Amino acid sequence: MPFFLFAPQPVATVAAGLMVVTQLWLVLSGNFAWLNWITIVLALSAVDASPLTGDHPQPDPPLWYAAPVVAVTALVLVRSYRPARNLLSRNQAMNRSYDPFHLVNSYGAFGTVGRVRDEIVVEGTDDPAPHEGTVWREYGFRGKPGDPRRLPRQFAPYHLRLDWLMWFAALSPGYARAWFGPFVERLLDGDRDTLRLLAHNPFPDAPPVHVRARLYRYRYTTWRELRATGAWWHRTPLREYLPPTRLRKPVGGP
Description:
By secondary structure, the chain is an alpha+beta fold. Helices cover 35% and strands 16% of the residues.
């Protein structure tokens, strides 16, 4: 449909309408921050509003305006040859620039969309020596799946940065290498600014002694499971993501 936005009317308006409907469906079914809304704004710019405003002919643009527009358009078309080839390639590369000035690229929010939902569950305990019977209490995030009985929430177009990072961390530990360790350290330290990013802190009086993280596979429950258990999600443990971790004792400390 994006290509038809450049077609004559009423084709462009029909294409814009289809794009808006598709994007609104994504808004209802997911939290992709402002991505869907900015696409809706761009699509609406192609809608023919003359039936509402009256058909008033517009004067031709002056030469000083038309010439630079034509020149820039020609430049972008020429430089877009390599990104267009990449778009049609079987080995499509995402988020790559083909111009030193970054005029053209192959940016995409998602190269592929998976059908499996893995989530990291972060837990803490005040037990100084965790063992098999240790009780672990779960931290609750504002947007991402956690408690299976919690109804999925809608936050878009607001961008929950931490929840977004947690999603990518579940896809690959490489995405979390730079920040997940400091995040756990701040939970162990009871950092107020970090805790404000969460929906639920299971240690309101004092920070935990140990924090761990486990990887689960989530799926939506069926209607029958939802009625029987009240759970929106069913989760299956996969593996340990981070073993029980505590703050190092200061040198010379007790």
